[in-house]
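> @MW can you paste both from yesterday?
MW: sure, first one:
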Amino acid sequence: MSGVEASRELEGRSGLEGRSGLEGRSGLEGRSVGAARCAVVVLAGGTSRRLDGVDKASLVLDGTPLLSRVLDAVAGHEVVVVGPRRPVPGGRIVTWTVEDPPLGGPLAGLAAGVEALDGTMSLWVLALACDLPHAADAVPTLLAAAAACPEAEALVGHDVDGRAQPLLAVYALDPLRRALSGAGDLVGAPLRRLLAPLSVEAVPLPARATRDVDTWQDATLLGVTVPDARPSTRSPASARPPGAVRERSGTPA
């Protein structure tokens, strides 16, 4: 895969066969994979078709953009955001990248994010979608699960109905890279292609943690709004071409 643009910024699989042995596992609480051992990839691209093209990452809950809420949930971690650069909280170092070609789907986006982590010292990757207003409710549980089950290759969040959430999950970095390398053409590919070869542990999560914003109805139910006025449809041209950059400030260069 070519094309990493850096600056410091998976079709849910129903029926995922993952073990649910973390429920009731002794020693889970109070343990966690530290920030030095777990990098983060946030997917913030896509067309937002069911939101009339409105940028999900810029939608607001309690005065804070959804992307900023996700970044707040992983403060202290090495972070890559896949998608067009946007303002982020001041002083935070974020690596930005876009998949090649842009809008190639979540699997291609995740691969681009992992590629941007080349040289990282992390052993784990926490994958998150940008439209999870309450990601902070899930992150500690996922990191604790990784600490409690280090032999797993993927610890995938599951909602209260038992549905897998591959973009609310922790992956062991080396197995993740191998799975991506062996997944063939990633553009438009379903996330189950990534998960199939991995040893998966199911991580039950509370309902609020797994609720995302796919439609205006979702936004209304969650209390999510547009910042001021509904922005115009964003085109793929708003994503920068491949090439790496690092950014510390909250305002894009």
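MW: second:
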Amino acid sequence: MPHHSARSFSPHFLTFLVPPVTYATLADLIARAGESEIRQIADRDRDGEIDADVISEALEHADNLVNGYVGTKYSLPFASVPDLVTTWAIDIARHRLHYQGPPEYVEEDYKRAIASLEKVARGQISLPVAGVETPASSSGTVMFSAPDEVFDARGLRGWKCL
């Protein structure tokens, strides 16, 4: 059986569960951080150009992370992406692009984005999404059925535990 490293295995299964939606774009990253910073952190082959695959990976990572949090409370994909979600995706992708360690201000933006997403998942922050109802929460009751006992005290008579 082949071994897959964490790097070679990507959570593409989400594309089957949620149609792909991009919450942020390269233009959004540049608007937030400036072209100079984005070129510096996304030019991995050092040819002076922003590497599209590096940007795509960071944006996909941000999208998947956002979906993991907001998907617990909202039906996805959104008909239109709330500005808050775009901001959080930018902060997450920018943090991801700083693979050698983000500056403190990028780290703080990332932490705020994750904290906000956690609040969305807990229902403490509501997103301004028109026409979307949040999934109904469970009452907490667990219901199941199981087959009859196979091994009971009578059937195990004479057996000893070691």
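> thanks! The chain is about 45% helix and 0% strand.
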